[in-house]
Design brief:
It comes from Arsukibacterium indicum. Keywords: Kinase, Membrane, Transferase, Transmembrane, Transmembrane helix. This is histidine kinase. The structure is a single chain. By secondary structure, the protein is an alpha+beta fold. Helix content is 45%, strand content 25%. It has 6 helices and 9 strands; from the N terminus they run E-E-H-H-E-H-E-E-H-E-E-H-H-E-E. Strand 6 and strand 7 form a beta hairpin. Helix 2 packs parallel to helix 6. It is globular and about 85 Å long. Bound molecules: adenosine-5'-diphosphate. The site of adenosine-5'-diphosphate has 21 residues, from helix 4 and helix 6.
């Protein structure tokens, strides 16, 4: 039950009573839970056949089976690209549902952040090449430790980097910085891309939110990446945020409290 209590103020500015409203929100909660369970069940059911379709298309397109007529080849590549998109969407949906249901187990460990940033950069390199965007890194040389789940930090960085790349112009540079800020470790992903419209800024971390439908359809994506990233960052005790100016670019940042490094020996 949700309770709201409001004082009733009379003409002399004194409180003459209180107005209480009790709202039964158990039904709303139940509906929310049913919706999440539905998303989860459907996503699971879709994932198995889709994995098989995607896998088969990848084999056919790898050229190991036979030389295909160019038109067939083209169509199969379109099918592969789209089944990959669906796979990403379904995995994101399942991830989000697990996070909301509190079913995500984090493997928290105090560790140096540098290798995580380097791994994320390495993994995204071919995507950057595809968009003809350069990657540049400014990484603190002193070891910076934080207590995090390594795989989840890499997942967040992957989201931030792929956004920075896909919303940048060809030939521009995306910079990744790893710095110490007082007692915090901060990672910044800086692009010189499209920037974010002011009226979209407050919704950017919402599920399924995308700023411009037309340009997003061209770029793909699900509108779930930042929602998942935020949930994960908060669950690990970190923070995530951004600064952006439309037409100038955006800086997304991720911070964690610094942990003390193990003394040598
Ligand atoms: P997706 O990238 O799958 O659409 P996200 O949740 O990662 O979903 O991002 C939501 C939206 O926020 C994007 O569709 C885009 O409109 C906007 N956005 C995110 N990152 C950037 C960025 N670096 N530059 C410009 N717009 C961005």
């Amino acid at each position: 039950v949700q309770l709201t209590v409001t004082p009733i103020i009379d003409g002399n500015n004194t409180i003459s009573g209180y107005l209480g409203i009790a709202k039964d929100i158990s039904e709303r909660k139940r509906n929310e839970q049913l919706k999440n369970e539905f998303i989860s069940t459907v996503s699971h059911e879709l994932r198995t056949p889709l994995t098989s379709i995607y896998g088969s298309l990848r084999i056919v397109n790898s050229g190991v089976l036979a030389e295909l007529p160019p038109k067939v080849d083209k169509l199969l590549q379109v099918a592969e690209a789209n089944s990959q998109r669906l796979t990403i969407l379904i995995n994101d949906l399942l991830d989000m549902e697990k996070l909301l249901a509190g079913k995500v187990q984090l493997n928290m460990l105090s560790q140096p952040m540098l290798p995580l940033v380097q791994e994320a950069l390495q993994a995204i390199q071919s995507y950057a090449d595809q968009y003809q965007v350069k990657l540049s890194a400014e990484l603190a040389s002193a070891p910076l430790y934080a207590a995090v789940d390594a795989a989840r930090v890499i997942q967040i960085l992957h989201n931030l980097l792929s956004n920075a790349i896909k919303f940048s112009a060809e030939g521009s540079t995306v910079v990744v910085r790893l710095i110490q800020l007082r007692d915090q470790v901060k990672i910044e992903v800086i692009d010189q891309g499209l920037g974010i419209p002011d009226d979209f800024k407050s919704r950017i971390f919402d599920r399924f939110s995308q700023s411009d439908a037309a340009s997003n359809r061209q770029h793909g994506g699900t509108g779930l990446g930042l929602a998942i990233s935020k949930e994960l960052a908060l669950k690990m005790g970190g923070e995530i945020g951004f600064n952006s100016q439309l037409g100038q670019g955006s800086t997304f940042w991720l911070t964690f409290s610094q942990t003390v490094t193990e003394p040598a020996g």
